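[job 4471] stage=fold_predict status=RUNNING
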Amino acid sequence: MHYFHEIVFTVQLLENVPIDEVQCAIAEQINNAMTHDPDLKEFHHLNSFKFYNFSAPFPIEPDRLYKKDRLYCFNFRTIDLQLALKLKQYLPISKGVFKVIS
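[job 4471] inference complete, writing C-alpha cells
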C-alpha cells in the first residue's frame, strides 16, 4: 500500500507572474531547492518518473495574474517521505519567484 505525503506551502510572490507561467516558475524553484542536497541533486538528474506533483497556487486571481507581495498556497504531494521532508527543508532557501512563508 502506498501513502501520499502532502505539504501545503504558503508563499509570497516576489514579482507578478501570469497564470500560464506560474507552474513553470514553481517547478524551477523546486528544481533549485533540489540542488542544495547531494541526494536530491542526483535524484533531480535521473531520467525517470519522480512521483511527485504540485498544484497551482490558490486563490486564483480573477485577472489571471498572480500579484507581487501577495500570499498564495500550493500543495506538494509525493509518495516519498524523504523527498517531502527534504523539500520542506530546502524550498525556503531556494531561489526563484517566491519566498516560503510557512
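[job 4471] summary: The mean pLDDT is 95.
[job 4471] exit 0
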